[in-house]
From TrEMBL:
Pfam families in the record: STAS
Species in which this protein is naturally found: Paractinoplanes rhizophilus
Name of the protein in its database record: Anti-sigma factor antagonist
Top-rank lineage group of the source organism: Bacteria
Domain STAS, chain residue ranges per copy: 1-111
Record-stated family: Belongs to the anti-sigma-factor antagonist family.
UniProt cross-references to InterPro entries, sorted A to Z: Anti-sigma_ant (IPR003658), STAS_dom (IPR002645), STAS_dom_sf (IPR036513)
Length: 111
């Protein structure tokens, strides 16, 4: 997991591997600590390289979302894999995170 600040003040946290009982505490600590210390305008959690996520991972993302809301930070999930997106859809949380109901590339959005 790496954390970096963009020029506009947004902080990006790149998460890799699995989000499960073995890893969620460290990721939660990074997210909440960064939000409380830095209070960025936005926090992007990049999930490009997350290959597995169980209910503990989902709970950790909800915890990060809630902490961001408390600090006035926009919380963004970027590039969730189909597996991660599916986990968020079946738990009914995809919409809360601003994700489309399907990650299908054939879906179109009309402005």
């Amino acid at each position: 997991m790496t954390t970096r600040r963009q020029a506009d003040g947004t902080i990006v946290v790149d998460v890799r591997g699995s989000l499960d009982a073995a890893t969620v505490d460290a990721v939660r600590e990074t997210l909440t600590g960064t939000l409380q210390r830095e209070r960025p305008v936005a926090l992007i959690v990049d999930l490009t390289f997350v290959v597995f996520m169980d209910s503990m991972g989902v709970g950790m993302l909800v915890s990060g979302f809630n902490t961001a809301r408390e600090t006035g930070t926009r919380f963004v999930l970027r590039n969730p894999s189909e597996f991660v997106h599916h986990q968020l859809r079946v738990t009914g949380l995809a919409e809360m995170f601003g994700l489309p109901p399907s990650s299908s590339s054939t879906q179109s959005f009309t402005p």
